[in-house]
Fold:
Amino acid sequence: MRLLESLRSIEEEQLHSFYMPGHKRHPKFIEKLENIIKLDITEIPKADHLHAPKSCILETQKLIASMYESGTSRLLINGSTVGILSMIIGSLDEGDQVLLNRNAHKSVYNAVSIAKLKPHYYLPEYDDYMGIVIGYDMDDIKAILNDNRAIKAVILTYPTYEGICMDIKCIIEFCHERHIWVLVDEAHGAHLKLNSDGPLSALDLGADIVVQSFHKTLPALTQTACLHYGRHMTKTIEGNRIVHQVDDCLKTFQTSSPSYVLMASVDAMLDLIQEEGKRWCEVLALQIERLYEETKSLKTISFYHTKRTKDPSKLMLQIHPDFYEEGIWDGETISKKMRAIYHIQVEYETQTMLLFMTSICNDPSDFEVLAEALKALDQLRMDEVSNGHFNFKGQEKQRAKFNFAKQYKSLVQSENQVYLPHEVKRRAFSEVTPEAAIGEISADFITPYPPGIPICVPGERITHEAIDLLKALLGTELTKIKILERSLE
Structure:
């Protein structure tokens, strides 16, 4: 089956969407883009030009800046990736030191390598059982900055994929006192501005540059995104210098043939937000509250609640440890049952958690079906347990498997960096067994999912502890590791 046929087959399933993109195929969004193929043109007169906007595209960007209260904003059609690359490479010079979260998106690591920067890392706080990042220790970040006064920029991920929003305001203020740039990957936060009761956008908290993916959480087509400059950035000579350099990078990395279909979908999004945004936000909040109420008595699964600040539109369903059983009652099994029986598609799952991404475009029926599915599946598991179909040994094994957070913190804090990431690019490498890799230098990222945190980064020496941790996370999936050829060390 080829792509088009496969996509049509998926459409025929009529899935209840708890995954990206944020438009959820909403009828009003489809109506706004009716006959959109007729708008697929190029830079002819009256159509303006993305890389030098003077008319209609400029007006759209002005509206975005007004709605998000930025200094100025740039429309992106190569996703947040192009914004993150440009933000980092345009803001810093070769050899500059930068602080980033160890679980940063790969585009951040790519930017650090391309720009030949020296990275320092701060470690996320991690939930062992669910396999997700739940925050960052702001005191750790301050300590690293105090110990490394040459750091020029701090890169933050806010919110996390799962919607956790740290108190980054204190870090932004701390950095600005030391004239350190704060660059924020807010790919999962384009919708925060709509919810007056929810977490604030990093833009409102004073960040210098913020990159957002419209398509992830709002009614816009996949690949649409935006780069915002803080209001203060256009008011100083140094700020304007950075704006100019980042804009130059956007022209370098972004396609010279931008899709007018994608850009038009952003205009449609802006109209929908102005027309329906507030009301749809209220409806979404009501539906989520009702879902929580209807499922509060579940025994084997439950929605994750935290005292930490969190994006309310991200729903995390955790499997109760007393009922977990690999291959029988785990994240993957539940996800497959939801798709096959109830036509519900989740964003992703770990062994012990499922992430549901909602948006203002979800239909109330999505939540009704989800509530019924969860209650039915919960009862199914309870019946299995009552009938004695439960492997307690498997449950204990799984619990033990996730007890590694302290090991990881100790591992990453050790000094294993031999080369900077860019120094090992294009060098010859070989693939060896995990045991043979101990003491060698990694030629590639080794990043188990979950939690999506690199255990080894190119240029780092591979330790015995790293291999033990990788084996605990990956088991038999860990077969070969790329290392630098010894002659190149």
In short: The chain has three domains: 24-270, 277-397, 404-488.
